[in-house]
Design goal:
Residues 7-327 form the FAD/NAD(P)-binding domain. By secondary structure, the chain is of the alpha/beta class. Helix content is 31%, strand content 26%. The strands form five sheets. A five-stranded mixed beta barrel has the order 1-2-3-4-5. Strands 16-17-20-19-18 form a five-stranded antiparallel β-sheet, sandwiched between helices. α3 (49-66) packs antiparallel against α4 (82-107) and α3 (49-66) runs parallel beside α7 (185-197).
Length: 464
């Protein structure tokens, strides 16, 4: 058995927050090791955020070129080369890997490539990817192992060898008919991209609406946009059986209130949520407890149930976004240094990178209703934002929720061009505690999309 090597800080999984913590602590003089089994830099730059947005951008180019004549540019026949799309994506991933290796080297943190497993409190055994084993311990230990795609328990699904986002981002051919199980973030982003590349696409979603956490008007508008591009959306549909093989021919049988139906396609993508990577990492040999859904039990300071062991990102049950894992890093960094930063009451903005995108910060109207918070609401169709006269990006709307008791902005949702950038303006106003009237009266540049914030907030009914 190899001797146990001791580190000041030992991090399992090079997730988004964990790697930043490693670089920070190592630069501060600590002896730090990060154990990563597969993706230098974690999933975001390798198989999730960056590669998906890279391919979504390629799909947008395809879409624009296909519609170029409407804007006065004549093109010849348009075709999409998925091998070239994939190559462009892979070149970016390779740049990301090089960047991360450089950052590890510059910081002095050691990146150990191998599968890690706890063999005792604060002690990890690593099966090295290059062969052999190492045993490591940390005075402080951080778990940042992320999650993997959930594979629902549907008869025939394992045999159909459905893709997750990982395989879908590696396709170098165009599926003739892509069936997507799940109408959430991954499903919708990938469905629109593949439709724009030229696939026929069907989304199968068990709930009665897409994007369950959004208001009905928001979900309906997104559905209208997807359907207008030729995507078939089947709601209230529970898959009961899968037959065939993804990449060849697949059949999904679904049960709906209206009866049973069969959807036949060529390729199958599963996008039905995430499962934390906590099942096989030996936590039972430690004092680190899991909750009933398999997430690491943490307090608001991101401390686990074992002293000196912290958890960051999706495995800690944090909302599933890179910027949240990065914020978890800041919390753990400051708490390790004796501070008291907390996860509760932080804003969690997000953007779904469809075209147009969906962005939200703060409360939706439905959340205000569920919490019994008195509110005022205004919406503004994107067609009323003057810039869209020039760009014809008229799909979607802005929606603001404001307190009925004072002028606080409670939430902002937008489907529309530049939604993420416009949302950041509202988020900043919310962080500063500005009343909505300040945005209503602000001098915002003509002819920007953010100019729509004036008329949006002018639509909020006055205080009674
Ligand atoms: C297709 C897709 C697109 C997305 N797009 C966005 C987006 O645009 N914006 C956004 O904010 N979020 C996006 N997300 C979510 C985002 O990717 C995640 O929330 C984020 O990467 C989570 O980071 P994390 O720190 O929890 O862990 P991860 O970044 O997932 O890292 C965990 C790491 O731990 C490693 N690991 C696991 N177990 C072990 C072990 N036993 N030994 C060694 N290593 C191990 C894994 O290999 C992995 O590299 C997307 C997700 C998906 C699936
Ligand atoms: N732009 C972004 O920031 C971005 C992009 C992609 C993913 N993400 C993150 O990753 C997370 C995971 O994404 P996701 O799309 O896998 O999960 P999700 O939770 O967003 O959506 C999963 C969907 O699958 C449906 N579903 C559940 N069981 C099903 C079944 N048996 N058959 C068909 N559908 C089923 C659910 O009803 C739900 O609508 C997201 O919640 C998000 O936090 C973020």
């Amino acid at each position: 058995m190899p001797d146990i090597e001791n580190f000041d800080t030992l991090i399992l999984g090079s997730g988004q927050g964990g790697k930043l913590l490693a670089w920070h602590l190592a630069r501060s003089g600590q002896k730090v090791a990060v154990v990563e089994r597969r993706w230098v830099g974690g999933s975001c730059p390798a198989v999730a955020c960056l590669p998906s947005k890279n391919e979504i951008w390629s799909a947008r180019i395809a879409h624009l070129v296909q519609h170029a004549a409407e804007f006065g540019t004549a093109t010849g026949p348009v075709s999409v080369d998925m091998a070239a799309v994939r190559r462009r994506k892979q070149a970016m991933v390779d740049r990301e890997i090089a960047f991360h290796l450089g950052a590890y080297k510059a910081s002095g943190a050691e990146l150990i490539m191998g599968e890690g497993r706890f063999i005792g409190p604060k002690t990890i055994e690593v099966s090295l990817n290059d062969g052999g084993q190492r045993r490591l311990s940390g005075n402080q230990v951080v778990v940042n192992v992320g999650s993997h795609a959930a594979i629902p328990d549907i008869p025939g699904l394992p045999a159909a060898r459905a893709m997750t986002h990982i395989e879908a981002l590696e396709l170098d051919y165009l599926p003739s008919h892509l069936i997507v199980l799940g109408g959430g973030y991954v499903g919708i982003e990938m469905a629109q991209a593949y439709r724009r590349f030229g696939s026929r696409v069907t989304i199968i979603e068990p709930s009665q609406r897409l994007m369950g956490r959004e208001d009905a008007d928001v979900a309906e508008e997104m559905q209208r946009i997807l359907v207008s591009e030729g995507i078939e959306v089947v709601l209230g549909a529970r898959p009961t059986q899968v037959r065939g093989l993804s990449g060849d021919a697949v059949v999904v049988e679904i049960h709906t209130d209206a009866g049973n139906r069969t959807v036949e396609g060529s390729d199958l993508l599963v996008a039905a949520g995430r499962v934390p990577n906590t099942a096989d990492i030996g936590l039972e040999k430690t004092g680190v407890e899991l909750d009933d859904r398999g997430f690491i039990r943490v307090n608001e300071r991101l401390e686990t149930t074992e002293g000196g062991v912290w958890a960051i990102g999706e495995c800690a049950g944090s909302p599933q976004f890179t910027h949240v894992s990065v914020d978890d890093f800041r919390i753990v960094r400051d708490n390790m240094a004796g501070g008291n930063r907390r996860t509760d009451a932080r804003q969690i903005p997000y953007v779904m990178f469809t075209d147009p995108p969906l962005a939200r910060v703060g409360m939706s109207e439905g959340e205000a209703q569920r919490l019994g918070i008195a509110y005022r609401v205004a919406t503004l169709p994107m067609g009323n934002v003057l810039r869209t006269e020039a760009t014809e990006e008229t799909q979607g709307f802005m929606k603001a929720v404001v307190s009925a008791n004072d002028d606080r902005i409670l939430g902002f949702t937008m489907i529309g061009s530049e939604a993420g950038e416009v949302m950041a303006v509202v988020q900043t106003a919310m962080m500063a505690g500005l009343p909505y009237t300040e945005l209503r009266e602000a001098v915002i540049v003509h002819l920007t999309i953010a100019e729509g914030l004036g008329p949006l907030f002018a639509g909020i009914p006055p205080l009674r």
